[in-house]
Write a structure and sequence with these properties.
Length: 428
Protein backbone atom coordinates (compact mmCIF):
# COMPACT_ATOMS: atom_id res chain seq x y z
CA UNK A 1 0.00 0.00 0.00
CA UNK A 2 1.16 3.49 -0.75
CA UNK A 3 0.98 6.07 2.02
CA UNK A 4 0.97 5.59 5.76
CA UNK A 5 0.62 2.13 7.29
CA UNK A 6 -2.90 1.40 8.50
CA UNK A 7 -3.27 -0.65 11.66
CA UNK A 8 -6.13 -2.95 12.59
CA UNK A 9 -6.56 -2.33 16.31
CA UNK A 10 -9.63 -4.40 17.12
CA UNK A 11 -12.96 -5.53 15.77
CA UNK A 12 -16.21 -6.81 17.13
CA UNK A 13 -19.53 -8.00 15.81
CA UNK A 14 -22.96 -8.79 17.10
CA UNK A 15 -24.01 -12.41 17.12
CA UNK A 16 -25.30 -13.36 13.67
CA UNK A 17 -28.94 -14.43 13.85
CA UNK A 18 -31.02 -16.04 11.15
CA UNK A 19 -33.46 -13.48 9.73
CA UNK A 20 -36.84 -13.55 11.42
CA UNK A 21 -35.45 -14.90 14.68
CA UNK A 22 -33.68 -13.27 17.66
CA UNK A 23 -33.07 -9.83 16.13
CA UNK A 24 -36.28 -9.43 14.13
CA UNK A 25 -37.31 -6.51 16.36
CA UNK A 26 -34.03 -4.64 15.83
CA UNK A 27 -33.17 -2.47 12.84
CA UNK A 28 -29.77 -2.45 11.14
CA UNK A 29 -29.20 0.91 12.86
CA UNK A 30 -29.89 -0.66 16.29
CA UNK A 31 -27.49 -3.49 15.53
CA UNK A 32 -24.82 -1.11 14.23
CA UNK A 33 -25.07 1.14 17.31
CA UNK A 34 -24.74 -1.78 19.70
CA UNK A 35 -21.75 -3.08 17.79
CA UNK A 36 -19.88 0.25 17.60
CA UNK A 37 -20.61 0.93 21.30
CA UNK A 38 -19.17 -2.47 22.18
CA UNK A 39 -16.05 -1.77 20.11
CA UNK A 40 -15.47 1.56 21.87
CA UNK A 41 -15.98 -0.01 25.30
CA UNK A 42 -13.77 -3.02 24.60
CA UNK A 43 -10.90 -0.90 23.35
CA UNK A 44 -11.29 1.68 26.12
CA UNK A 45 -11.24 4.29 23.39
CA UNK A 46 -12.06 7.92 24.05
CA UNK A 47 -15.00 8.34 21.67
CA UNK A 48 -14.07 11.98 21.10
CA UNK A 49 -11.05 10.77 19.15
CA UNK A 50 -13.10 8.95 16.50
CA UNK A 51 -13.00 11.11 13.39
CA UNK A 52 -15.27 9.15 11.08
CA UNK A 53 -17.61 6.20 10.82
CA UNK A 54 -17.83 4.46 7.45
CA UNK A 55 -20.54 1.87 7.32
CA UNK A 56 -21.95 -0.50 4.73
CA UNK A 57 -25.45 -1.78 4.24
CA UNK A 58 -27.12 -3.44 1.27
CA UNK A 59 -30.84 -2.98 1.90
CA UNK A 60 -30.98 0.52 3.41
CA UNK A 61 -33.84 1.93 5.41
CA UNK A 62 -36.03 4.16 3.25
CA UNK A 63 -36.38 6.67 6.08
CA UNK A 64 -32.74 6.66 7.27
CA UNK A 65 -30.59 5.76 4.27
CA UNK A 66 -27.29 7.04 5.75
CA UNK A 67 -26.98 4.32 8.39
CA UNK A 68 -23.44 5.45 9.24
CA UNK A 69 -24.68 8.84 10.40
CA UNK A 70 -27.46 7.33 12.49
CA UNK A 71 -24.97 4.94 14.11
CA UNK A 72 -22.56 7.80 14.79
CA UNK A 73 -25.26 9.75 16.66
CA UNK A 74 -24.70 7.83 19.87
CA UNK A 75 -23.75 9.31 23.23
CA UNK A 76 -20.22 7.91 23.10
CA UNK A 77 -19.29 9.76 19.91
CA UNK A 78 -18.97 13.48 19.23
CA UNK A 79 -21.52 15.05 16.89
CA UNK A 80 -18.56 16.20 14.80
CA UNK A 81 -17.65 12.62 13.93
CA UNK A 82 -18.43 12.53 10.23
CA UNK A 83 -20.21 9.49 8.89
CA UNK A 84 -21.16 8.10 5.53
CA UNK A 85 -22.62 4.92 4.10
CA UNK A 86 -21.30 2.84 1.25
CA UNK A 87 -22.84 0.10 -0.83
CA UNK A 88 -21.02 -2.63 -2.72
CA UNK A 89 -23.48 -5.49 -2.27
CA UNK A 90 -22.03 -8.26 -0.08
CA UNK A 91 -18.65 -6.48 -0.05
CA UNK A 92 -20.16 -3.32 1.50
CA UNK A 93 -18.30 -3.65 4.82
CA UNK A 94 -15.14 -4.24 2.80
CA UNK A 95 -15.80 -1.05 0.87
CA UNK A 96 -16.30 0.77 4.17
CA UNK A 97 -13.03 -0.65 5.50
CA UNK A 98 -11.00 0.19 2.39
CA UNK A 99 -12.48 3.71 2.28
CA UNK A 100 -11.30 4.16 5.87
CA UNK A 101 -7.92 2.63 5.02
CA UNK A 102 -7.47 5.03 2.09
CA UNK A 103 -8.30 8.05 4.22
CA UNK A 104 -5.82 7.00 6.90
CA UNK A 105 -3.11 6.06 4.37
CA UNK A 106 -3.54 9.45 2.68
CA UNK A 107 -3.10 11.26 5.99
CA UNK A 108 -6.61 12.70 6.01
CA UNK A 109 -7.73 10.73 9.07
CA UNK A 110 -6.06 8.94 11.98
CA UNK A 111 -8.87 7.05 13.72
CA UNK A 112 -11.83 5.60 11.85
CA UNK A 113 -14.41 2.93 12.68
CA UNK A 114 -15.59 0.93 9.65
CA UNK A 115 -17.93 -1.99 9.18
CA UNK A 116 -21.55 -2.58 8.35
CA UNK A 117 -24.94 -3.84 9.41
CA UNK A 118 -27.88 -5.61 7.87
CA UNK A 119 -31.32 -6.52 9.06
CA UNK A 120 -32.84 -8.89 6.54
CA UNK A 121 -35.74 -9.26 8.99
CA UNK A 122 -36.64 -5.64 8.24
CA UNK A 123 -36.48 -5.11 4.51
CA UNK A 124 -38.66 -2.31 3.16
CA UNK A 125 -41.80 -3.49 1.42
CA UNK A 126 -42.92 -1.16 -1.35
CA UNK A 127 -46.25 -0.35 -2.92
CA UNK A 128 -46.76 -1.38 -6.53
CA UNK A 129 -46.27 1.28 -9.20
CA UNK A 130 -50.06 1.54 -9.66
CA UNK A 131 -50.66 2.00 -5.94
CA UNK A 132 -47.86 4.57 -5.65
CA UNK A 133 -49.38 6.61 -8.50
CA UNK A 134 -52.78 6.48 -6.82
CA UNK A 135 -51.39 7.50 -3.43
CA UNK A 136 -49.60 10.48 -5.00
CA UNK A 137 -52.79 11.46 -6.84
CA UNK A 138 -54.73 11.08 -3.58
CA UNK A 139 -52.42 13.47 -1.76
CA UNK A 140 -52.98 16.03 -4.52
CA UNK A 141 -56.75 15.63 -4.87
CA UNK A 142 -58.52 18.89 -4.12
CA UNK A 143 -61.96 17.60 -3.14
CA UNK A 144 -63.55 14.75 -1.20
CA UNK A 145 -65.21 13.59 -4.43
CA UNK A 146 -61.80 13.47 -6.15
CA UNK A 147 -60.37 11.40 -3.32
CA UNK A 148 -63.30 8.96 -3.40
CA UNK A 149 -62.87 8.59 -7.18
CA UNK A 150 -59.17 7.73 -6.79
CA UNK A 151 -59.79 5.31 -3.90
CA UNK A 152 -62.51 3.53 -5.84
CA UNK A 153 -60.06 2.97 -8.69
CA UNK A 154 -57.76 0.83 -6.50
CA UNK A 155 -57.69 -2.73 -7.85
CA UNK A 156 -56.49 -5.91 -6.06
CA UNK A 157 -53.35 -6.02 -8.22
CA UNK A 158 -52.42 -2.53 -6.94
CA UNK A 159 -52.29 -3.98 -3.43
CA UNK A 160 -49.66 -6.59 -4.29
CA UNK A 161 -46.51 -5.33 -2.53
CA UNK A 162 -43.00 -5.36 -3.97
CA UNK A 163 -40.32 -6.94 -1.80
CA UNK A 164 -36.59 -6.59 -2.53
CA UNK A 165 -35.35 -9.65 -4.42
CA UNK A 166 -31.85 -11.04 -4.15
CA UNK A 167 -31.75 -10.83 -7.92
CA UNK A 168 -29.56 -9.03 -10.39
CA UNK A 169 -31.42 -6.02 -11.79
CA UNK A 170 -29.53 -6.44 -15.09
CA UNK A 171 -30.24 -10.15 -15.66
CA UNK A 172 -33.08 -11.01 -13.29
CA UNK A 173 -31.01 -13.97 -12.09
CA UNK A 174 -31.08 -14.59 -8.34
CA UNK A 175 -27.90 -15.32 -6.39
CA UNK A 176 -29.07 -18.89 -5.90
CA UNK A 177 -29.68 -19.34 -9.63
CA UNK A 178 -26.20 -17.96 -10.30
CA UNK A 179 -24.72 -20.45 -7.84
CA UNK A 180 -26.62 -23.21 -9.63
CA UNK A 181 -25.22 -22.07 -12.96
CA UNK A 182 -21.71 -21.98 -11.53
CA UNK A 183 -22.04 -25.47 -10.09
CA UNK A 184 -22.98 -26.77 -13.54
CA UNK A 185 -20.35 -24.81 -15.52
CA UNK A 186 -17.57 -25.77 -13.09
CA UNK A 187 -18.78 -29.34 -12.54
CA UNK A 188 -19.19 -28.92 -8.79
CA UNK A 189 -21.06 -31.97 -7.51
CA UNK A 190 -23.87 -31.91 -4.97
CA UNK A 191 -21.81 -34.20 -2.74
CA UNK A 192 -18.84 -31.81 -2.75
CA UNK A 193 -21.15 -28.89 -1.90
CA UNK A 194 -22.74 -30.77 0.98
CA UNK A 195 -19.36 -31.91 2.31
CA UNK A 196 -18.16 -28.31 2.20
CA UNK A 197 -21.28 -27.12 4.05
CA UNK A 198 -20.77 -29.82 6.68
CA UNK A 199 -17.16 -28.69 7.10
CA UNK A 200 -18.35 -25.12 7.61
CA UNK A 201 -20.75 -26.14 10.39
CA UNK A 202 -18.25 -28.48 12.07
CA UNK A 203 -15.41 -25.95 12.10
CA UNK A 204 -17.71 -23.13 13.23
CA UNK A 205 -19.00 -25.39 16.03
CA UNK A 206 -15.44 -26.05 17.21
CA UNK A 207 -14.56 -22.34 16.93
CA UNK A 208 -17.63 -21.45 19.01
CA UNK A 209 -17.06 -24.13 21.63
CA UNK A 210 -13.40 -23.24 22.19
CA UNK A 211 -14.24 -19.53 22.29
CA UNK A 212 -12.28 -18.29 19.26
CA UNK A 213 -15.36 -17.34 17.25
CA UNK A 214 -17.35 -16.11 20.20
CA UNK A 215 -14.45 -13.87 21.25
CA UNK A 216 -15.39 -11.63 18.30
CA UNK A 217 -18.94 -11.23 19.52
CA UNK A 218 -20.36 -8.50 21.71
CA UNK A 219 -23.61 -9.64 23.35
CA UNK A 220 -26.89 -7.99 22.41
CA UNK A 221 -29.76 -7.52 24.87
CA UNK A 222 -32.98 -7.43 22.93
CA UNK A 223 -35.94 -5.30 24.06
CA UNK A 224 -38.51 -5.43 25.54
CA UNK A 225 -37.29 -7.91 28.19
CA UNK A 226 -33.55 -7.56 27.49
CA UNK A 227 -33.13 -11.04 28.97
CA UNK A 228 -31.43 -13.30 28.23
CA UNK A 229 -28.64 -11.59 26.29
CA UNK A 230 -27.74 -13.07 22.90
CA UNK A 231 -24.06 -13.92 22.74
CA UNK A 232 -23.65 -16.56 20.04
CA UNK A 233 -24.63 -17.17 16.42
CA UNK A 234 -27.83 -19.15 16.04
CA UNK A 235 -27.27 -20.64 12.56
CA UNK A 236 -24.39 -22.96 13.41
CA UNK A 237 -25.63 -26.54 13.49
CA UNK A 238 -23.47 -28.48 15.89
CA UNK A 239 -25.45 -31.60 15.02
CA UNK A 240 -25.28 -31.22 11.22
CA UNK A 241 -24.80 -34.50 9.36
CA UNK A 242 -24.01 -35.32 5.76
CA UNK A 243 -27.14 -37.49 5.60
CA UNK A 244 -29.36 -34.53 6.59
CA UNK A 245 -27.62 -32.29 4.05
CA UNK A 246 -27.96 -34.89 1.28
CA UNK A 247 -31.68 -35.21 2.00
CA UNK A 248 -32.45 -31.51 1.36
CA UNK A 249 -34.23 -30.62 -1.88
CA UNK A 250 -32.60 -28.17 -4.31
CA UNK A 251 -34.15 -24.70 -3.99
CA UNK A 252 -33.22 -22.76 -7.10
CA UNK A 253 -33.47 -25.49 -9.76
CA UNK A 254 -35.90 -27.95 -8.29
CA UNK A 255 -35.51 -30.56 -11.01
CA UNK A 256 -31.80 -30.68 -11.90
CA UNK A 257 -30.27 -28.47 -9.22
CA UNK A 258 -27.78 -29.08 -6.41
CA UNK A 259 -27.93 -25.84 -4.39
CA UNK A 260 -29.97 -26.35 -1.21
CA UNK A 261 -30.77 -24.42 1.98
CA UNK A 262 -28.01 -26.49 3.59
CA UNK A 263 -25.19 -25.57 1.22
CA UNK A 264 -26.20 -21.87 0.92
CA UNK A 265 -25.55 -19.08 3.39
CA UNK A 266 -28.76 -18.20 5.24
CA UNK A 267 -30.49 -14.81 5.31
CA UNK A 268 -29.10 -13.21 8.46
CA UNK A 269 -29.22 -10.15 10.75
CA UNK A 270 -26.08 -8.69 12.31
CA UNK A 271 -23.44 -5.96 12.43
CA UNK A 272 -19.66 -5.65 12.53
CA UNK A 273 -17.21 -2.86 13.33
CA UNK A 274 -13.44 -2.55 13.02
CA UNK A 275 -11.22 0.08 14.63
CA UNK A 276 -8.53 1.33 12.23
CA UNK A 277 -5.74 3.77 13.08
CA UNK A 278 -2.66 5.22 11.50
CA UNK A 279 0.38 3.40 12.87
CA UNK A 280 1.70 6.65 14.35
CA UNK A 281 -1.51 7.51 16.23
CA UNK A 282 -1.83 3.96 17.54
CA UNK A 283 1.67 4.23 18.96
CA UNK A 284 1.02 7.63 20.53
CA UNK A 285 -2.19 6.37 22.17
CA UNK A 286 -0.55 3.16 23.35
CA UNK A 287 -2.56 0.75 21.22
CA UNK A 288 -0.81 -2.38 19.96
CA UNK A 289 -1.90 -3.13 16.39
CA UNK A 290 -3.03 -6.67 15.61
CA UNK A 291 -2.14 -6.38 11.94
CA UNK A 292 -1.58 -3.96 9.08
CA UNK A 293 -3.38 -3.73 5.76
CA UNK A 294 -0.88 -4.78 3.13
CA UNK A 295 -2.98 -4.47 -0.05
CA UNK A 296 -6.46 -4.82 -1.47
CA UNK A 297 -8.20 -5.06 -4.83
CA UNK A 298 -11.67 -5.05 -6.34
CA UNK A 299 -12.82 -6.69 -9.55
CA UNK A 300 -15.90 -7.03 -11.72
CA UNK A 301 -17.17 -9.29 -14.45
CA UNK A 302 -20.36 -9.48 -16.48
CA UNK A 303 -23.16 -10.39 -14.03
CA UNK A 304 -24.68 -12.62 -16.71
CA UNK A 305 -21.55 -14.74 -16.83
CA UNK A 306 -20.53 -16.34 -13.52
CA UNK A 307 -21.84 -13.84 -11.01
CA UNK A 308 -19.78 -14.91 -7.99
CA UNK A 309 -16.35 -15.39 -9.62
CA UNK A 310 -15.11 -11.90 -8.65
CA UNK A 311 -12.61 -13.19 -6.03
CA UNK A 312 -10.75 -15.12 -8.74
CA UNK A 313 -10.04 -11.81 -10.50
CA UNK A 314 -9.39 -9.75 -7.35
CA UNK A 315 -7.12 -12.14 -5.40
CA UNK A 316 -4.20 -12.23 -7.88
CA UNK A 317 -4.19 -8.43 -8.02
CA UNK A 318 -4.20 -8.09 -4.22
CA UNK A 319 -1.41 -10.67 -3.93
CA UNK A 320 0.59 -8.90 -6.64
CA UNK A 321 0.10 -5.52 -4.95
CA UNK A 322 1.28 -7.04 -1.66
CA UNK A 323 4.34 -8.42 -3.46
CA UNK A 324 3.56 -11.98 -2.36
CA UNK A 325 2.20 -15.24 -3.75
CA UNK A 326 -0.29 -17.72 -2.38
CA UNK A 327 2.64 -19.77 -1.04
CA UNK A 328 3.43 -16.90 1.38
CA UNK A 329 -0.11 -16.82 2.80
CA UNK A 330 -0.60 -18.47 6.20
CA UNK A 331 -4.37 -18.20 6.48
CA UNK A 332 -7.25 -17.61 4.06
CA UNK A 333 -10.79 -16.45 4.74
CA UNK A 334 -13.15 -16.78 1.79
CA UNK A 335 -16.74 -15.59 2.10
CA UNK A 336 -19.06 -18.56 1.66
CA UNK A 337 -22.12 -17.28 -0.20
CA UNK A 338 -22.73 -20.81 -1.46
CA UNK A 339 -20.59 -23.94 -1.34
CA UNK A 340 -20.86 -24.01 -5.16
CA UNK A 341 -19.33 -20.51 -5.30
CA UNK A 342 -16.44 -21.30 -2.92
CA UNK A 343 -15.59 -24.49 -4.81
CA UNK A 344 -15.85 -22.66 -8.16
CA UNK A 345 -13.57 -19.90 -6.86
CA UNK A 346 -11.04 -22.45 -5.57
CA UNK A 347 -11.03 -24.14 -8.99
CA UNK A 348 -10.66 -20.71 -10.61
CA UNK A 349 -7.55 -20.02 -8.53
CA UNK A 350 -5.92 -23.02 -10.20
CA UNK A 351 -7.01 -22.08 -13.72
CA UNK A 352 -4.75 -20.46 -16.31
CA UNK A 353 -7.85 -19.17 -18.10
CA UNK A 354 -8.93 -17.12 -15.06
CA UNK A 355 -5.35 -16.07 -14.35
CA UNK A 356 -5.02 -14.63 -17.85
CA UNK A 357 -8.34 -12.85 -17.49
CA UNK A 358 -6.96 -11.24 -14.34
CA UNK A 359 -3.85 -10.21 -16.30
CA UNK A 360 -1.38 -12.81 -14.98
CA UNK A 361 0.42 -15.60 -16.84
CA UNK A 362 0.27 -18.07 -13.95
CA UNK A 363 -2.69 -19.14 -11.79
CA UNK A 364 -2.89 -18.12 -8.12
CA UNK A 365 -2.53 -21.80 -7.27
CA UNK A 366 -4.17 -24.53 -5.22
CA UNK A 367 -5.42 -23.41 -1.81
CA UNK A 368 -4.24 -25.57 1.07
CA UNK A 369 -7.56 -26.49 2.66
CA UNK A 370 -6.01 -26.64 6.12
CA UNK A 371 -5.50 -22.86 5.88
CA UNK A 372 -8.97 -22.08 4.51
CA UNK A 373 -11.90 -20.86 6.65
CA UNK A 374 -10.48 -22.64 9.66
CA UNK A 375 -13.49 -21.72 11.81
CA UNK A 376 -16.07 -22.30 9.09
CA UNK A 377 -17.66 -19.47 7.16
CA UNK A 378 -20.83 -17.73 6.14
CA UNK A 379 -22.72 -20.96 5.37
CA UNK A 380 -22.68 -21.83 9.07
CA UNK A 381 -22.04 -18.50 10.80
CA UNK A 382 -24.49 -16.56 8.63
CA UNK A 383 -24.28 -13.68 6.20
CA UNK A 384 -25.79 -10.29 7.08
CA UNK A 385 -24.86 -8.81 3.71
CA UNK A 386 -23.55 -5.41 4.79
CA UNK A 387 -21.71 -6.77 7.87
CA UNK A 388 -19.95 -9.87 6.59
CA UNK A 389 -16.76 -8.17 5.37
CA UNK A 390 -16.00 -6.85 8.86
CA UNK A 391 -16.65 -10.27 10.39
CA UNK A 392 -14.29 -11.97 7.94
CA UNK A 393 -11.51 -9.41 8.41
CA UNK A 394 -11.62 -9.85 12.19
CA UNK A 395 -11.84 -13.65 12.03
CA UNK A 396 -8.76 -13.63 9.79
CA UNK A 397 -6.86 -11.09 11.88
CA UNK A 398 -7.52 -12.71 15.25
CA UNK A 399 -6.69 -16.20 14.05
CA UNK A 400 -3.53 -15.00 12.29
CA UNK A 401 -2.41 -13.50 15.59
CA UNK A 402 -3.31 -16.67 17.54
CA UNK A 403 -1.35 -18.85 15.13
CA UNK A 404 1.60 -16.49 14.88
CA UNK A 405 1.26 -16.47 11.09
CA UNK A 406 2.56 -13.60 9.02
CA UNK A 407 0.17 -13.01 6.12
CA UNK A 408 -3.56 -13.50 5.65
CA UNK A 409 -5.72 -13.31 2.51
CA UNK A 410 -9.46 -12.70 2.47
CA UNK A 411 -11.90 -12.70 -0.43
CA UNK A 412 -15.55 -11.74 -0.82
CA UNK A 413 -17.83 -12.21 -3.84
CA UNK A 414 -20.64 -9.73 -4.37
CA UNK A 415 -23.70 -9.09 -6.49
CA UNK A 416 -23.13 -7.27 -9.75
CA UNK A 417 -20.33 -9.73 -10.59
CA UNK A 418 -17.94 -8.00 -8.20
CA UNK A 419 -15.14 -9.35 -6.06
CA UNK A 420 -12.84 -8.17 -3.30
CA UNK A 421 -9.55 -9.41 -1.91
CA UNK A 422 -7.31 -8.08 0.84
CA UNK A 423 -3.91 -9.10 2.18
CA UNK A 424 -3.10 -8.34 5.81
CA UNK A 425 0.14 -8.67 7.67
CA UNK A 426 0.39 -9.52 11.37
CA UNK A 427 2.05 -6.79 13.38
CA UNK A 428 5.47 -8.02 14.46
C1 LIG B 1 -31.50 -21.00 0.44
C2 LIG B 1 -32.64 -20.23 1.09
C3 LIG B 1 -33.70 -19.87 0.04
C4 LIG B 1 -33.25 -21.16 2.13
O1 LIG B 1 -34.22 -20.46 2.83
P1 LIG B 1 -35.21 -21.22 3.82
O2 LIG B 1 -36.01 -22.24 3.06
O3 LIG B 1 -35.93 -20.18 4.58
O4 LIG B 1 -34.19 -21.98 4.75
P2 LIG B 1 -34.43 -22.76 6.08
O5 LIG B 1 -33.45 -22.32 7.08
O6 LIG B 1 -35.90 -22.73 6.47
O7 LIG B 1 -34.04 -24.22 5.68
C5 LIG B 1 -34.90 -25.04 4.88
C6 LIG B 1 -34.83 -26.45 5.47
O8 LIG B 1 -33.50 -26.93 5.34
C7 LIG B 1 -33.04 -27.40 6.59
N1 LIG B 1 -31.59 -27.16 6.68
C8 LIG B 1 -30.93 -26.03 6.38
N2 LIG B 1 -29.62 -26.20 6.62
C9 LIG B 1 -29.47 -27.47 7.06
C10 LIG B 1 -28.35 -28.22 7.48
N3 LIG B 1 -27.10 -27.72 7.49
N4 LIG B 1 -28.54 -29.49 7.90
C11 LIG B 1 -29.78 -30.00 7.91
N5 LIG B 1 -30.88 -29.35 7.52
C12 LIG B 1 -30.72 -28.09 7.11
C13 LIG B 1 -33.82 -26.57 7.59
O9 LIG B 1 -33.90 -27.23 8.84
C14 LIG B 1 -35.17 -26.48 6.95
O10 LIG B 1 -35.87 -27.68 7.20
P3 LIG B 1 -37.44 -27.64 7.51
O11 LIG B 1 -38.08 -27.08 6.27
O12 LIG B 1 -37.77 -29.06 7.78
O13 LIG B 1 -37.60 -26.74 8.69
C15 LIG B 1 -32.15 -18.93 1.78
O14 LIG B 1 -31.32 -19.25 2.87
C16 LIG B 1 -31.38 -18.08 0.81
O15 LIG B 1 -31.98 -17.38 0.00
N6 LIG B 1 -30.04 -18.12 0.89
C17 LIG B 1 -29.18 -17.47 -0.05
C18 LIG B 1 -28.98 -16.06 0.36
C19 LIG B 1 -28.21 -15.32 -0.69
O16 LIG B 1 -28.55 -15.32 -1.86
N7 LIG B 1 -27.19 -14.68 -0.25
C20 LIG B 1 -26.38 -13.90 -1.09
C21 LIG B 1 -25.07 -14.53 -1.19
S1 LIG B 1 -23.82 -13.35 -1.58
Amino acid sequence: MLGRRVAIIAGVRTPFARAGTLFKGLSAIDLGKRCVAELIQRTNLDGDLVEAIVYGTVVPSVTAPNIAREVSLMPMLPRGCEAYTVSRACASANQAITDAVDQIALGNRDIVIAGGAESLSNVPILHSRGMSDKLVALSRAKSAAGRVKILSSVRPRDLVPITPAIAEPSTGETMGQSAEKMSKLNHISREDQDQFALRSHRLASVGSEDGRLTAEIGPVWVPPSYEPGVSSDNGIRTDSTIEALRALKPVFDKRYGSVTAGNSSPLTDGASAVLLMSEERARVLGYTPLAFIRSYAYSALDPGEQLLMGPVLAAPVALHRAGVTLANIDLIEMHEAFAAQVLSNLDGFESRYWAERAGFPEPVGAVDRSKLNVMGGSIAIGHPFGATGGRILMTLTNELVRRGGQLGLMTVCAAGGMGHAMVIERAA
